[in-house]
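Hey, can you fold this one?
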Amino acid sequence: MVNPFEKSNKYHVDYHQIKPINKYKFPWNGKRFYGVFPESFQQLPVEIEAPSSAILNTDYDLVVLAYQIWYLTPSIPTCIVS
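Sure. Predicted structure:
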């Protein structure tokens, strides 16, 4: 999706990976797999590692938030408190 921006000299692309403080250890067994379902479906957020100050102090023209789908909802690390 961002490949055209990366190939062009007109744009600068930054990446930031959202990482939960308490890592999800894969592979999951059945109990762990079904145990995370309620939190994912209800979109309950978890604490994430803070982004770098360089990311936070930059004005962006476009932000792309890409994430995996867990149980037909955004994955837990991307749940946002409103």
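Residues 3-78 form one domain. Let me know if you want another pass with a different chain boundary.
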